[in-house]
Amino acid sequence: MEILSEMKANDPDFNYTVQVDEESRIKTLMWVTSRGFDQYRCFGDAITFDTTYRTNLYDMPFGLFVGVNNHFQSIIFGGAMMRDEKEDTFKWIVREFIRMVGGKHPQTILTNQARAMELAIEVELPNTVHRWCKWHVLKKANESMGVLWSKNSNFKMEFHKLVHHMITEEEFGAGWQDMLEKYNLRKHPFLTQIYEVQHKWAKPYFRGVFCAKMNSTQRSESANHLLKGYVPSGCPMHLFLKQFEKLQFDRESEESFQEKSTLLSGVSLRLNLPIERHASKVYTRAMFEKFDEELYKCGTHVLDEIVPRKIYKSTHIDAAAREKWSKVEFKIEVNDDESFFSCECGTFEHSGLVCCHALQVMVFFRLSKIPEKHIMKRWTRDARDVLPAYLVRYQRDRGPPSSDTFRHHTMYMKALECVLLGDSNVKCYDVFMAMMKEVQAALVPLSSDKDGMGLAEREQQNQLLVQNEQETLELQGCATRSHCDGESSCSVIVGQQKKRPRGRPTTSRDKALYEEHLKRLQFCTICRSQGHKCTTCPERGDVPKAPRKLPKCLNCGVLGHRSNACGTKKSGPFEPNFL
Prior knowledge:
By secondary structure, the protein is an alpha+beta fold. It contains 18 helices and 11 strands.
């Protein structure tokens, strides 16, 4: 708790919350750094949450809220250390996290298949789309399918194709039924179970749902794996927090390197098209490479015009060689002013990048720039140019004000000159901030009498929205139960009990309840049914064995005994009754 207070003193925007039990021991610990708060404000539209184990001395699971920035790098928003993984615990974690990052709900959240987490998200994030991680589905398939998942079977390849490459629901359903029919798996319990919840993990159901090109909690898994490189297995809490700070610092260094690489180094153009040159100036270096991949795929499709300047059809050139259930034709619709190109594949809605089908139509239209509606700001170089709602008119992507006035322009230019001078050294910065606070305090009472000629009034910006948002955040903060925040006294908290057994701690990962190893069922190799083996199969088709032949006596000719046990007189070899 002293280290948390020290982190709060060094970083005023650092926020943490502690939930204690009846014995005043830590039950849940949640924190968000100032860097995580700023990152969430720009890239908090799609996040993942996953827990890892064996990271501390007390065997408390540790969860990470992870996202992706405009360089397609994993970024950490916040961390949570919990004693258990019950529904109430996850509700508290989600509620506190949203409060700490400003009350903004994400559009999409990806988690594992824990039922408690799913129920907590439904209550705390009702308007957020919740999806499962595909990695856990593939892991369970590996445990449940037995010999079908081996190298000698094509089932694994076909299953991966269904999971990763299907686009539409009809395509996925047809491919799934063909797979079940081909391998006679209609009664398989695992496949039946996951197909009933296909809307949670199958790729076609991610179409139209923005996930920032994430369809798995692999971002959280990689962050957890990276964390274990900094934190030893038997780590106490105070050392855990210190090492977590080092992890954050190293991640920020890598992000700064990508920022400089985007600003200083150029990119190589594959096709040298005008739209490609425009993309190289708008997107970051990493995202331009992904855009270039989509532009390169245009060569594998043939474009047909259905309705001039309205509807087009893109067909794959290898349509005849693909599976019968595979979708090879995609329809692209263009709006009236040719500012938006809607493709039925849903790639733009899912990832925020234009698909190859829509790009093919744009090249056909000879567009020199990507339409503004197809440029998502989170992938651009100006992704961090996000100002508060009442200052949003000054963002670079908004351009100059539509109704600028002489007095506003004069004050704006004078303020820029003062900012340039204040950035000369530390002393100039201190003087500038002190003077600005005095000017602001003097202008606040005078600004209450508005003449209606200000820029805010001319652009009809409603500042009441900001006040309502602040009131909502204050109400949420008052509703928080049993938390220790900021500089409040934490002397009543008792140290956590150690749960480590004797001996050297293992580095293996504990498994959650939903990851328990499933018992493999035995299937008959003849009829493919479960419950019996091939040796006892009723459809075996073997001919039943003939009944045992009874011996015949050579003396009396009666069945049932031999001649050495016969009671009649034994005949010699030359007597007539011998034969």
